[in-house]
Amino acid sequence: MGKSLIQQKRGKGSPRYRAPSFRYKGKASFSRYEEGKVITANVADIVHSRGHTAPLMELKYSNGEVGLLQAPEGIKIGDKIEIGTDVEIKAGNILPLKNIPEGTSIYNIESNPGDGGKFVRTCGAFAKIITKTQEGIVVQLPSYKRRTFLPECKATIGTIAGSGRTEKPFLKAGSRFYAMKMKNKLWPNVSGTSMNSVSHPFGGSSSHAKGIPTQASRNAPPGRKVGKIAPKRTGRHKR
């Protein structure tokens, strides 16, 4: 029997599961700069984008560019930020990791020099520089995992504004529904055993009674490969 699984619907790319990026304010990243030069920017406005959990600051750079960046705590309209190698260590300024002291809180860290920032971009998040080695700069991420970055990767000083967003409960299912719909997130999450048999291989029969193993075969077709992923090997590991 054919099944219309959620993962199949997502892969189809229908509007229900497609991010409404045309409603986003824009990409949040900082401007590129040349080595040895300092670029200044004025905070023209603090804006809200439905595609970002953190408030964004609209920046007008001295080189004529206009961009968006996650706003740090304590920033306000009219403040100035700087991008360079030897600028002041204050909230909002952007420097290479090699020029940031150890123990400094940072966010929006580049994965590769010049990509505009890929790590630590959600509201209330920050990372810390742990140590500097010959291999690179060791940074502790919000998950407490440590990752080594290239010394030339840039980062923003400070903590992203909007902390405490997840501490406020939704209280009503309707509020959660509209919050999820704003970003085209699938909600509510329904267990496969609670679905009808046409919607999921675990569905049907007596509601939560599975009736079939939840571990799918490694050779199972896409419509059946749900549940636990087949392990590469089982049993006690022999030394």
Beta fraction: 15-25%
Return the CATH class of the domain at 21-165. Mainly Beta
What's the CATH topology label of the domain at 21-165? Answer: SH3 type barrels
Q: How large, in whole angstroms, is the Cα Rg?
A: 23 Å
- Estimate the global geometry from the Cα principal axes: globular
Number of separate strands: 10
Order of H and E elements: HEEEEEEEEEEH
Helix vs. strand class: mainly beta
Mean pLDDT: 87
Instruction: Give the number of helices.
Output: 2
CATH architecture of the domain at 21-165: Roll
Strand order of the largest sheet: 5-10-6-7-8-9
What does the main sheet amount to?
Answer: 6 strands, antiparallel
Helix content: under 10%
Distance between the termini: 45 Å
Poorly predicted sequence stretches spanning 5 or more consecutive residues = none
